[in-house]
Structures are given as C-alpha cells and as structure tokens.
Amino acid sequence: MTPHTVDIVVLAAGKGTRMRSARPKVLQPLAGRPLLFHVLDTAEALAPAQGVVVVGHEAAQVTAALAAWYSRQRVSASSGNGPTAPQKAPEQTGSDIWRTVAQTPQLGTGHALQVALPALADSPARWVLVLYGDVPLIRPSTLVRLVAAATACDGVALLTVTLENPSGYGRIVRDGAGGVAAIVEEKDADAATRAVREVNTGVMVLPKARLAAWLAALTPNNVQEEYYLTDVVARAVAEGVPVVAVQPETVEETLGVNDKRQLAELERIFQRQTAEQLLAAGVTLLDPARFDVRGELTCGRDVTIDVGCLFLGEVVLHDDVVVGAHSVLQDCVVGPGTRIEPFSHIVGAQIGANAVIGPYARIRPKTVLADGVHIGNFVEVKNSEIGEGSKANHLSYLGDATVGSRVNIGAGTITCNYDGANKYRTVIEDDAFIGSDTQLVAPVRVGRGATLGAGTTLTKDAPPEALTLSRAPQRSITGWKRPQKKR
Ligand code: UD1
Ligand code: MG
C-alpha cells in the first residue's frame, strides 16, 4: 500500500455510559495510554493522506488529549516533494495530517462520516478508511489487506467476523450468490437475519467519490432513529458498486470496549501480546501472565524478568540484566549484568553495569549510579550521583548527593538535604567511609579517604584522610538504680 492511498476517519464521538467514569471512554487507558492513541498509532502506520477524528461526547477533554498526540506527529506528509502533499489549513485544529471535527449532536455513524467529509475535501486520497476510537487492537496488516481489497474491486471493503454469539452487532446479509447485499442492525433485524453470525466490525473502506452522495441519501428510518453508516452498503449494491468482506487474522483485533470488564480483558490480551514479542526476542519471562508493560521496554540479550514486574514509560535493560520479582521500573536505563533484587522501585534513573539494587530499594528521579554500585534494602536515593563500586547497603537516605568511587555508606546514614525551604547538596569524595547512623547536614563535604565515626552529626566539612566524629563521650554511672514499679 502506497502512502496517501487512504484518508482515515476515527469515530470517537459516542458516549461511554457503561464505563461509569468521568473520563471519556476513548481516553480510558489501555497499557497506560488512551484507547484512542492506540487506534491513532495504528492509523499513522498506514500513512494516510489526511485523518479526521470525530469527537462529540466530552469533546473538550478528547480534543485536549488529541492536541498532545498531534504534537508528536509528522510535521509534513511528504516533506514538500510531490503533488500529493496536503495543504495545511491553519484555522483548523490538528497537525498537518490530522484534524479534530466536532459532531454535535451525535446522530449516528453515518452522520459522523458526513460531519468528517468536508475536512477531507482537499486530500488526494480516493478511499476513506473508517476506524472506531474504542477498538484499539486492530492491526495495521489487517487494515492494509482491507484497503487492498477495496482498491482491487474498486468498491467497498468491510471487515467482518463470524461470532458464536453475534448479539449486539450489525449482521452481514448475503444474496443467493454469496455476495454481500446489506448490513442490518440487530435492532432492525427479523429473526432470520438475527440468526446470521457474520457481523460488521464497523471497520470499512469506502470510495470517497461516491460517499458524499451515499451519506446525503441516508434517512433515520430505523428503530434507533439514527443515520446508519451501514446503510451505504445496500446503496452501493443497488448502484452496482462491488462490496467485499475481509476477515482479520484474529477476532481479538476487532474487540471494542464498552465497560471496565472489557477494558480489563483487552488489557490482558495486549499484555500477553507484548510478553510474546519479548519471549520471541529471547527475553526470559518467568511468567508471561504476570508481567506488565505500560510504555516501551527494550531488552538486550539474556535478560531475565521474574514474576509480577511492571515497566512504565521507557525502560532499557541491557544484556544479562536480572529483574527480581515484583519490581517497578519507570523511565530508566539499567546497564549490563546488573541485578535488580525483588520489590525494588526505580524511577527516572540511570544505572551502570554489574550493579546490585535491592531488595526493597527505592531509586528516585535524577539518580545516576555508576558501574558496580550496591544499593541495598530500604535505601532511598534521589537526585544523586554515586561513583563506581560505592555501596549503601542498608536503611539509608541519599538525596541531592554526589558520592565518589569506592565509598562505603554505613547503615542508617541520612543526608539532611532539606531545611524546610531549600535543598542542599552533600558531597562525599572517593574512598570515604561513612560510619553507621550518620547525619550529613547539607551543604557539607566529606574529603577523599575521610572516615566518619558512627553516629556522627556532620555540620562542617570533614577533612580528607582524617577520622571525624561528633559524639558525646561515653560514661558509666555505677550504683545507679533503675526505677521500680510500686507493688
Ligand atoms: C456499530 C455498527 C454495527 C457494528 C458495530 C460494531 C452502525 C449503524 N452500526 O453499531 O453494524 O456491528 O458498530 O461495534 O454503524 N459514533 C460516533 N458518532 C455517532 C455514533 C457513534 O462517533 O453519532 C462512534 C462511537 O463512538 C463508536 C462507533 O461510532 O466508536 C460505533 O458506534 P456505536 O454506537 O457503538 O455503534 P453500534 O450500535 O455498536
Ligand atoms: Mg458499539
């Protein structure tokens, strides 16, 4: 399929009553992103000449979300070469390719297309592909076949599936010769038509030159009193325009979302697909059913991920990384050979090679850990750089710190980085040894090779190579009696 063969209309104006949510249905998240974005990403993969998203219900929220999606799209369809470059109309909202069009009120799918068509007037594409904003798993390869079927017959191509239980869907009515004759909505169907199990998925490709006339002739003479897009099929047949049906590789692709149960079902399907891609690429997933990616996970060779892990945003795991059970990693890069032990939470960090993190570590944004760093249990690190081979193995807080190489940070060490209004840095130079239960009151610096005695509250810089300690002298009081309870 060559670029700009089709225009794409995504229908997203409908109400999502059964979601029982203040958030519009098409903005409900699948794998952490709005349903509509999944559809638009697939649409973009077809390189449409022009795209229109029809919004209606909760239009303001959907339009705002669309603006975010548009801003990440191609700047121009063909970077200025060739006559097919669409003209940008600056008064319309959208990108060079995509426009948002409001449908108020919503009078049916046929009406939605009618409202969308004017935005496609300048596009050179001869075909319109209709997608639904609440059918997120549809694959580009299926759509390419559908478009090819329409162009090959120079007519209409419908994506249909045959279901065990077709209830709720429009039925595909075929003539004596087996050709498609019409689509009849369930509410308008007689018993014989209701018995048909081949249904309209809603996804179709239509010839643009004829579409305006077909839509103009629609009437709402049906049980729902709507302008049905599906009625154009019988009209095409009457005019002798070929209508063909194409089936997707899997029924899953055509599943729509109407309520939270279906949303959860599609989430599982999506996660299973992601897991299967990673398994195929050689990643070891101890249980692909207990594994979630809400974003993009990139793995090197021989990466192992234990059960219950969640990956958010953009995560890169280099070769031989092991992620322990029930860890959450968001927007981070983990260097080769590093082990993330169970129950670790890592956000916005860069971790070097052969490090050991966790169990129960919390690594927060703007943390950079060099090779061979050890961050142990109940250690929180935020906005800090920690040098090669340094260790903080137990119960510590390192915030706004710059730590050199080969530093040992004892259990219970705290950087006191915040005075209630301002944040200050702590600097610990190479080869320093920080005794347990030390408070470093920032701004403060510990010199190269310095040792801090356990329990020190450091309020002034500690010189290099020396032992620094702030500790009340120990004394013992003999003959002292512990108070006794009266009997
Ligand atoms: C529609 C089809 C039906 C098909 C089914 C597949 C029609 C008349 N019927 O029925 O044949 O089997 O989808 O799921 O087309 N929408 C708008 N504006 C409107 C109405 C709907 O944008 O005025 C959007 C909805 O947000 C939704 C899609 O169009 O994404 C389909 O609308 P919906 O009301 O779900 O149609 P169905 O009755 O399910
Ligand atoms: Mg529907």
How many individual helices? 8
Bound ligands = uridine-diphosphate-N-acetylglucosamine, magnesium ion
Fraction in beta strands: 25-35%
What ranges have pLDDT less than 50 throughout 5 or more consecutive residues?
Answer: 76-92
Q: Helicity, in percent?
A: 10-25%
DSSP, total strands:
36
Shape descriptor reads elongated
Secondary-structure-derived class: alpha/beta
The average pLDDT value, as a whole number, equals: 95
Q: Radius of gyration in whole Å, from Cα?
A: 31 Å
Please report the distance between the alpha carbons of the first and last residues: 94 Å
Sheet with most strands: 22 strands, parallel
Short description:
By secondary structure, the chain is of the alpha/beta class. 18% of the residues lie in helices and 30% in strands. The strands form 5 sheets. The chain has a 22-stranded parallel β-sheet that branches.
Molecular structure report:
With 487 residues, the chain is an alpha/beta fold. Helices cover 18% and strands 30% of the residues. The chain is built from eight helices and 36 strands. The strands form five sheets. It has a 22-stranded parallel β-sheet that branches. Mean pLDDT is 95; it is low at 76-92.
